[in-house]
Structure formats: structure tokens, C-alpha cells
Design goal:
This protein is mainly α. It has helices at residues 12-19, 23-32, 38-49, 53-69. This is DUF4287 domain-containing protein. It holds the Pfam family DUF4287.
């Protein structure tokens, strides 16, 4: 039996379905943005890409966590 996905990644299937782009593409957009602070990136996804707060927050949190690991 597989373990349920938890944390920000649990939003990924809904994000892909609702916004029509794979998560990898959203992460690439986040990484290419000149913005670096968490809430700046969340606000940018919401205003420029029409994303809801929870989805934007999950993508940014997951992307920044990956990048900080190294």
C-alpha cells in the first residue's frame, strides 16, 4: 500500500488539473522570476497567473524547500 502524499505536494494534482500546466513548468516559472521572497512569489502567482492562495503557497513552499536543499 502506498503512502499518501502530504504537505505542499498534495496540492499538485489539483494544480495541474485547474491551471493546465505541469508542476515542473510552474516550478521553472518560479525559479526564473526575479522575485525571491516567499510571499512576493505567492502574490505574483496570484496576480499574474490567477492562481488561488493555497495553490500558489504550496508551489512556492515546495520549490523553495527543494532549492534550499541544494
Amino acid at each position: 500500500m502506498s503512502e499518501a502524499v502530504k504537505g505542499p505536494a498534495s496540492y499538485f494534482p489539483a494544480i495541474e488539473k485547474k491551471y493546465g500546466r505541469p508542476v515542473a513548468e510552474w516550478k521553472k516559472l518560479i525559479r526564473s522570476s526575479p522575485l525571491t521572497r516567499h510571499m512576493e512569489l505567492v502574490t505574483w502567482l496570484k496576480t499574474e497567473h490567477g492562481m488561488g492562495h493555497g495553490h500558489a503557497n504550496a508551489l512556492v513552499a515546495h520549490t523553495l524547500a527543494e532549492d534550499s536543499r541544494g
